[in-house]
Each structure stands twice: as C-alpha cells, then as structure tokens.
C-alpha cells in the first residue's frame, strides 16, 4: 500500500507566506524560504508553493523565489499560480520545481492540460480545483476563489483526469482555514470515481482531522498551512499518531 503524504502549503503574496480563512483575511505566516527549509528537515513528504495573487494580478509566479526555495529543500516541490503556458512550466521546472499546479488557466483552456501532460509527463501536472458547496452542488471557483463558475467539481475532475492530469489538489473553500476538518464526503467521492491521487486541502485543525481524511475521505495526501506554520501541530507528532492508527505513513528516525 502506498504511504499517505503530509504536505505543508506555502501560500505566497508579495513574497511572504500568508494564511487566511475561506480565502479571505490573510495574515503573515513567515518567510517562505525559511519555512520550506524547516519543513524539508522535519518530515514533510512534499511542499506546495502557491503564488495566490499571480492570476488575479495577471503576472507570472515568482520564479526567483521558487529557485531559492528549491535550493534549500530535498523533497518534491509543486508550484502554482499564474501558470498558463509551456514556457511558464519550463521556467519553473528549470528553477527546481518537481511539479506544477494549474487551476484557472486549465478551466479557461482545458487543452492546456493535454499539452502540458504530453510535453512534461502526467507526473508533473497537478490540477488544483477550488470548489464551494452551493445549493447542494460543489461548484468550481477561479482566481483564488473569487470567480464562481457553473462547473461541477466531479465532472471537471473526471475531465482533467482524461486530459492527462497526474494528480488533483482539491480545496474546499467552505472548509479552508476553519480548522473544522476536511470535506471528506466530497473527497471520498473523488477518490472513488477517479484513478489518480487526490490531495485533500482545506479544514485541517487537529491530528484526527488528518486521520479522518485518509480513512473516511480516502485521500492520498493531506495539505495544510496554518496548523503547521503557527506550530499548532508538528509533523512528527502527526505522523506518529497516524502510524499508531495504522495509517501507512513515512516516518524518519529523527521524526520520532
């Protein structure tokens, strides 16, 4: 059985790591390079770096900052934010990213997923989906959650898989930053209906929330930000408890 992955997320705005609630009310969470180094040395399985205002501000991801982060870590590193072309991906991969995450650009031009998967391989392409529950239906949102669409979460997820995405990063906007747990019902449906890995995002507040999303939500990985950034949960303690619950997890000797 594949081990479950724990992934700290660095949401970047103006060169700093930030964190909010329901995609709003952002507060500073530290220097992204220092945080990346800390997580790499303290048991994180991967890192996700999201330049959360790149699309809204119509500029490219901060490639130089990506290079600085990549130079300090030795774990897989996914970068997203404002990526809309083959050239964008080439720049980020050349600067040390292992994978790229596309979101708004993929909705606006679904063929982009096919092109990127064909050129760089599905293993490099993560499609991020931000969705909100509206009148009982999960609807996809764009531009950092600011622009609603009529796209259904599950239909869009199936399409991106067919187009060559290697992984889906699903963030529940309703759960984001609330620390009330992940959207496990939606995650379980995604995990059951798709054959590619699903990363759970939005709602982590306790160690048990992670266990629940692996057991009930059937997620392949769990992503969180504030509980790690503000030292509310350590990755070592989290992994030890997951191991105690017999959830397959990678534990290094120095994490125990």
Structure, described:
- This protein has 256 residues and is α/β, with parallel strands linked by helices.
- It has a single domain (5-255), classed as Aldolase class I (TIM Barrel), CATH 3.20.20.70.
- Helices cover 34% and strands 28% of the residues.
- Strands 1-4-5-6-7-10-11-12 form an eight-stranded parallel beta barrel, surrounded by six helices.
- Strand 2 (16-21) and strand 3 (24-30) form a beta hairpin.
Q: Over all CA atoms, what is the radius of gyration? A: 17 Å
Question: What separation lies between the terminal Cα atoms?
Answer: 22 Å
CATH topology tier name? TIM Barrel
* Portion in strands: 25-35%
Provide the spatial order of strands within the biggest beta sheet.
1-4-5-6-7-10-11-12
Mean pLDDT over all positions: 88
| Number of structurally distinct domains | 1
CATH superfamily: Aldolase class I
Report the CATH architecture: Alpha-Beta Barrel
Class from helix and strand fractions: alpha/beta
Q: Count all strands and give the number.
A: 12
- Categorize the overall geometry: globular
Order of helices and strands: EEEHEHEHEHHEEEHEHEHEHH
Helix segment tally? 10
């Amino acid at each position: 059985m594949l081990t479950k992955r724990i992934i700290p997320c660095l949401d970047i705005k103006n060169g700093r790591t930030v964190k909010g609630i329901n995609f709003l009310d952002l507060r500073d969470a530290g220097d992204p390079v220092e945080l990346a180094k800390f997580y790499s040395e303290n048991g994180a399985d991967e890192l996700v770096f999201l330049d959360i205002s790149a699309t809204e501000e119509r500029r490219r991801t901060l490639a130089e900052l990506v290079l600085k982060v990549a130079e300090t870590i030795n774990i897989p590193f996914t970068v997203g934010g404002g990526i809309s072309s083959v050239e964008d991906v080439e720049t980020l991969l050349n600067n040390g990213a292992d994978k790229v995450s596309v979101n708004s650009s993929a909705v606006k031009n679904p063929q982009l997923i096919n092109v990127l998967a064909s050129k760089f391989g599905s293993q490099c392409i993560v499609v991020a989906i931000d969705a909100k529950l509206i009148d009982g239906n999960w609807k996809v949102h764009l531009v950092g959650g600011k622009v609603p669409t009529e796209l259904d979460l599950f239909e869009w997820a199936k399409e991106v898989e067919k187009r060559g995405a290697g992984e889906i990063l699903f963030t529940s906007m309703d759960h984001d930053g609330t620390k009330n747990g992940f959207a496990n019902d939606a995650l379980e449906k995604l995990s059951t209906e798709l054959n590619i890995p699903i990363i759970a995002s939005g709602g982590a507040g306790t160690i048990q929330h992670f266990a629940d999303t692996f057991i009930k939500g059937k997620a392949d990985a769990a992503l969180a930000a504030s509980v790690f950034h503000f030292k509310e949960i350590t990755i070592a303690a989290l992994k030890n408890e997951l191991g105690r619950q017999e959830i397959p997890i990678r534990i290094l000797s120095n994490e125990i």
